[in-house]
Amino acid sequence: MTVRAVLSFLLLSYLPGIAQVAVSRASVQTILGFEDQTSHELSGWYLNPAGTVFADDQVAHSGRWSVRLQRDGQTADGFSAITRKIPVDFQGGVVELRGSLRLENISGYAGLWMREDADGQMLALENMQSQKVTGSHDWTEYRITLPLDAQAQELYFGVLASGSAGKVWADDLQFYVDGKPIEQVAAKAAAADVPADTEFDKGSRIQVTALSDVQVDNLVTLGRVWGFLKYHHPAVTAGRRNWDYDLFRVLPEVLAASDRKQADDAILKWIEALGPVSECKPCVPAPIGDLSLKPALEWIHDRSALGVPLAASLEQIYANRSGRQFYVSLAPDVGNPAFVHEGAYPQLAYADFGFQLLALFRWWNIMQYWAPDREIAGQDWPAVLAHSIRKVALAADKKAYELALFELIATANDTHANLWSSLADRPPTGECRVPVDVRFVNDKAVVYRTPANDGGLQAGDVIERLEGAPVAQLVADWRVFYADSNEAARRRDMAASLTRGACGAVSIDVTRAGKTETIKTQRVADKAGFATHDKGGDTFQLLSPSVAYVKLSSIKASDLPGYFAKAKGTKGLIVDIRNYPSEFMPFAIGQYFATKPTPFVSFTFAELANPGAFRFGPGPLIQPGPEHYGGKMIILVDEMSQSQAEYTAMALRAMPNALVVGSTTAGADGNVSRIPLPGNLSTMISGLGVYYPDHRQTQRVGIVPDVVAGPTIEGIAAGHDDVLLIALELIEGGSGASGREGAW
Fold first, then answer.
1. What distance in Å separates the CA atoms of residue 444 and residue 461, rounded to the nearest whole number?
2. What are phi and psi of 247, to 5 degrees?
3. How far apart are CA 308 and CA 261, in angstroms?
4. Cβ neighbours around 656 below 10 Å, total
5. Residue-by-residue DSSP string for 113-176
6. What Å distances lie between residue 742 and 651, 706, 733, CA to CA?
7. In the prediction, which pLDDT does 684 show?
8. CATH of 3-184 given 3.30.465.60, 3.30.420.100, 2.60.120.260, 3.40.50.720
9. Distance between CA 525 and CA 688 in Å, rounded?
10. Alpha helices (runs of H) in 422-516, residue ranges in sequence order
């Protein structure tokens, strides 16, 4: 990997740290001479890797302090670097970084570096690699420049040293823009917001109570073209149109069309009114390289479906796209899509055909262009659009509209999705619930935990009927409203809501110890939280002289040194992630097991210039820490393990002598991206694709255990944790582990 590529990787792997070392343009010059340092531990900069960068008060170009980057044959990674960033909130044509460097036996090369970013993607990079500054020499001033891209949002900068050995000192850095000190240049004008357009503030004024098949077909075409133009036509991507309201302007003609050709003609006339599309100079290149997805745009070439003029117009727009975006950006420091300038329209008065159709079109096109897992969802997406038009757009009131959106969003098969603004209206509804935890075991709804054995429901009870309704029928009726990546997560979420309903008395038929009983109990105001299946008691426990246990639901990184000191000498550590971690743990725990820098994940990122394309990018490495734990590790997972919990399990599984024990996880990973919807509603998608380094899928699949194990109804009734017992047996090598030893 070249240093240019490594620096790109740096900004993906260590972004949370870099985000904390931003500095304002007005104060940047005060930190560039390093005279703000007070000890040999360099402060205020992001350092990579640790232990190779120092503040130096013995060698300086001027003043007292400089920075020293020092490498030897044992140094991790292929380079050392310091990094800070400033916002590009200034005007100018060329940005310049100057600085003095002193080299001693540098085996690779040393240099200053700068990188311009927009929406989490690199626009330009200069790192002096071509100058081949190497070997040894005294203080010399160097300069690097970059043309200031009009779209740049952040400017990263610093000093680097590559190679297996050597030292470089840096001092007296200076920033200039067009030859002026950076703090003296004019501020950039504020970015434009959605163009002022108030015509439909009080409603779309489009009222429809029924749709013919011809109208549905024409609306499918309109929805696809509207979304395509939103992310490709220069008049829209430049932010010159309120694209939501433009939909309402063309809708009446499309609804009035008697056939496909008349509708296509109306759409073409609408496109032409946006103005000509200039020939691109230079043109945006087609997406190439290590792609997980290409844009799904075969349909724009279908002249039999669109007609020759409309297809030709879309092809011309695509060929000359600018690569800019207005309605979407990439989240700084992460890279998942951020849906900016999307109106939530809280004033929506139901029923409003136009705004409700807008909700469908917005969500569906976000799935087509900005959802990294759109193919993994396993849907015929044009069929989803056609099937949803009547349900969403013709919904007669708010409740029907929300239920239609629940059903639509569930087609994403993404546990991060859901209509999060409206969970109270997802079946079953009610203000109260029976205060017990329920989980599905072998397709049976089982009481998992109870607050007390008071003669009501007991752990191990199999719930057969609620108020006379069979649980199997309730599950079949409700499942279309649950947006989950896999059946394990869907059953988990339905179990959490199963006993919801009106407050007061409720009759529940259960099977207990092989006999059917009717239990009279109460629904009370008891809000269900995100349950855990881990062991009660302290965060860290010694389960035996040879087995240590830690659960992540209550863990603190600051306590890890003490935990590993107590675990020293044990045969193995059980890390329980049948929960959601209270702190981010992959690297903090992983460092105790890693014997070398270890990859465990790769990501896919959207390309703003090529909507619908997603490119693989490298993930971070688990680095060895100063203390090493030599025992085995078992990671416990189940349907409660979701997102950060799954990411943590991926990381720890990559460690030596690690084994995953449990059952299917929730299958939803990657930073989430929020989507506002008309009516002040809100949903999300998994905004990054998360894969193993060999590009194996994790979304929907989840973390597949090495040893499959789950609870039993008998174990729950007896108060046993069957999965934890198997983990103990695997580490201690008892008779109960027979047949499983080969999993290591």
1. 10
2. -60, -40
3. 10
4. 13
5. EEEEEETTEEEEEE-SGGGT--EEEEEEEEEEEEE--TT--EEEEEEEEESSSEEEEEEEEEEE
6. 22, 10, 11
7. 94
8. 2.60.120.260
9. 37
10. 471-478, 487-497
Cα(724)–Cα(727) distance, integer angstroms: 5
| Tokens describing residue 597 | 């820098």
| CATH 3.90.226.10 residue spans of the chain | 540-743
Cα separation, 322 vs 562, in Å, equals 55
Q: Which tokens hold the place of 26?
A: 């007005």
Tell me, what DSSP letter sits at residue 258?
Answer: S
**pLDDT for residue 452:** 66
Are 22 and 16 within 8 A, CB to CB? no
CA distance 616 to 614: 7
Contact 51, 149 (CB under 8 A): no
CA–CA distance, 724 with 638 (Å, rounded to integer): 12
Count of CA atoms in the C-beta half-sphere (13 A) of 675: 25
- Residue 305's identity, in one-letter code, is A
User: Is-contact 653 662, C-beta < 8 A?
Assistant: no
Phi, psi of 673 (to 5 degrees): -120, 125
Whether the bond between 282 and the residue before it is cis, its omega within 30 degrees of 0, is: yes
**CA-CA distance, 470 to 444, in Å (whole number)?**
11
Question: Which pTM does this prediction carry?
Answer: 0.78
Across the chain, which has 744 residues, the per-10-residue mean pLDDT values are 43 41 66 89 85 93 94 71 89 92 94 83 82 93 88 88 91 92 79 79 95 98 98 94 97 97 97 95 88 96 96 97 90 84 93 98 98 97 98 98 98 95 94 94 94 79 97 96 96 95 96 95 78 94 97 94 96 97 93 95 94 92 93 97 96 96 95 94 95 95 96 95 97 59 56
Distance CA 407, CA 482 (A): 7
Rounded CA gap, 304 and 309, in Å? 11
Q: How many CB atoms lie within 10 A of CB 75?
A: 17
Residues of the chain with CATH 2.60.120.260: 3-184
Q: Between the CA of residue 640 and those of 91, 431, 493, 663, 671, what are the distances in Å? A: 49, 24, 10, 10, 18
Location of structure tokens 């409206």: 422
What gap in Å lies between CA 436 and CA 420, rounded to an integer?
23
pLDDT at residue 331 in the model = 81
Q: What pLDDT does residue 739 have?
A: 45
Distance CA 31, CA 257 (A): 65
Beta strand 689-691 with 632-637: parallel, antiparallel or unpaired? unpaired
Tokens at 458, concatenated: 């007991």
For the four alpha carbons of 619, 366, 681 and 439, in that order, the dihedral sign comes to negative
Structure tokens at 540: 């860290």
CA 691-695-697 angle, to 5 degrees, is 50
- CB count in 10 Å sphere of residue 427: 17
Q: What 3-state class would DSSP assign to 6?
A: helix
Q: What is the pLDDT of residue 298?
A: 97
With H, G, I as helix, E, B as strand and everything else as coil, classify residue 180. strand
| Contact present, 594 and 622 (Cβ < 8 Å) | yes
Give the integer Cα–Cα distance in Å for 721 and 735. Answer: 17
DSSP H or E segment with residue 691: strand 689-691
CA distance 65 to 381: 60
Residue limits of CATH 2.30.42.10 in the chain: 425-523
- What CATH superfamily is the domain 425-523? PDZ domain (2.30.42.10)
Rounded to whole angstroms, how far apart are CA atoms 287 and 358? 29
Second-level CATH architecture of 540-743: Alpha-Beta Complex (3.90)
Q: Is 267 exposed, middle or buried (0-12, 13-18, 19+ CB in 10 A)?
A: buried
The pair of structure tokens assigned to 405 is 């959106």
pLDDT single digits (tens) 531-587: 799 999 999 999 999 999 999 999 998 999 999 999 999 999 999 999 999 999 999
Query: Looking at the DSSP assignment, which residues form a beta bridge with residue 22?
Result: 85
